[in-house]
Amino acid sequence: ILEERGQVIESRPSHLFGEGCAWTPEGIVQLTWRNRIAFRYNPETLEKIASYDYPRQGWGLIYDGEYLWASDGSHNLYRLNPKSLETNHQIQVRTKDGRTLPRINEMVWINGIVLANIFMENYIVAINPETGYVLRKWDLSAIVEDEKPRDREHVLNGIAYDPDGERLWITGKQWRHIYQIELPNMPNKGTTK
Fold first, then answer.
1. Model's pTM, two decimal places?
2. What Cα–Cα distance (Å) separates residue 66 from each residue in 63, 90, 112, 179?
3. What is the DSSP letter of 132?
4. Is the dihedral of CA 12, 15, 17, 21 positive or negative?
5. Cα distances (Å, whole numbers) of residue 142 to 115, 145, 146, 149
6. E strand or H helix at 27, and its extent?
7. Is 144 helix (H, G, I), strand (E, B) or coil?
8. 29 has which bridge partners?
9. What is the pLDDT of residues 142-182, one digit of tens each?
10. In 87-101, which positions are buried (b, 16+ CB within 10 angstroms) versus exposed (e)?
11. Pairing of strands 27-32, 37-41
12. Are strands 76-80 and 87-92 parallel, antiparallel or unpaired?
């Protein structure tokens, strides 16, 4: 749990590599990267209240107000039942020219659009969750260069959104900073494809 200033006030250590994490009305859901296990936690105490077999790698996870959406590092997004975590729909993410877009990683849900970073790339994309098509792409190379990554692994890798304050943040693996950014020309769900 983080305070407003970003100080950790409570945590739960684990031997598992945790990845995507999202709040739902039934509790916080967390995916593991390669262990194919998911957990549900009480949001007030962080106590584990359930665990689930999960059929794929866990990368990103978001909640749209009705469903969870998960990425697994491929070009697919999976819509999950937020109570059972069973997959009830799958889409392929494609660019405007029809090519699939692999390595979909961390995601946020903004006004009916999936905003995602692409692992090992310096950009984020807006995805229409109904069609899977990329609606817009933003190059964040200037921010990545400002961090002066020490090696290829210190990549853009984190994205978070505060819907109440309409604030968007990005960061990366072992970056020194978290950046609050604004994206020009943010599409809405009805924007082409």
1. 0.89
2. 7, 15, 11, 29
3. -
4. negative
5. 19, 5, 6, 12
6. strand 27-32
7. helix
8. 22, 40
9. 998 888 766 777 889 999 999 889 999 999 988 888 999 99
10. beeebebbeeeeeeb
11. antiparallel
12. antiparallel
